[in-house]
């Protein structure tokens, strides 16, 4: 079974399930029941009012979203993916061009060597942003 965004729902996933006809939302973990996937309900609400008593388990509604996979990863449609080096370089170019155009032109093309320094500056910034030390080859 897949959620509304096409992510496979597997036992252990933390999900939000919503009913379109009863105004009810449920939060809990998916598990394999005798007749397919069910959910252990941690929290529920009807028409915006939190329910103090609710069933311990239930069926998945028609509108289901995986909020966190069983392995701890967050689906892309929920979380923001970490920026790539190219993303950082693009943002850095845009920022510098608007903040200090002369510095931007110097980084883009060194007057003496003609070298473009943006790729190296972006790699260094990305490494620092991601908390990697200088010995890490990942970029």
Describe this structure in words.
With 139 residues, this protein is an alpha+beta fold. The chain has 2 domains: 14-68; 85-129. The protein has 3 helices and 6 strands. Strands 1, 2, 3, 4, 5 and 6 form a 6-stranded antiparallel sheet that branches. β3 and β4 form a beta hairpin. The longest helix is centred in the middle third of the chain and has 15 residues, at 85-99. The radius of gyration is 24 Å and the shape is elongated. The two termini are 35 Å apart. Mean pLDDT is 83; it is low at 134-139.
From the N-terminal CA to the C-terminal CA, the straight-line distance is: 35 Å
CA-based shape: elongated
Order of helices and strands: EEEEEEHHH
User: Using only CA atoms, what is the Rg?
Assistant: 24 Å
Range of strand content: 25-35%
**Strand elements, count:** 6
Structural class: alpha+beta
Percent helix range = 25-40%
Low-pLDDT stretches: 134-139
Summed up, the helix count is 3
What is the total number of structural domains?
2
Average of the residue pLDDT scores? 83
Report the major sheet: 6 strands, antiparallel
């Amino acid at each position: 079974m897949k959620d509304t965004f096409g992510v496979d729902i597997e036992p252990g996933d933390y999900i939000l399930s919503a009913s379109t006809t009863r105004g009810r939302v449920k939060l809990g973990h998916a598990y394999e029941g005798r007749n397919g996937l069910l959910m252990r309900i941690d929290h529920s609400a009807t028409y915006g009012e939190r329910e103090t008593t609710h069933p311990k388990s239930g069926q998945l509604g028609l509108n289901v979203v995986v909020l966190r996979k069983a392995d701890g990863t967050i689906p892309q449609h929920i979380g923001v993916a970490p920026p790539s080096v190219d993303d950082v370089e693009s943002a850095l170019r845009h920022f510098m061009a608007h903040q200090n155009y002369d510095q931007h032109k110097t980084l883009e093309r060194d007057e003496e060597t003609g070298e473009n320094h943006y790729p190296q500056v972006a790699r260094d910034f990305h490494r620092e942003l991601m908390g990697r030390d200088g010995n890490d080859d990942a970029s």
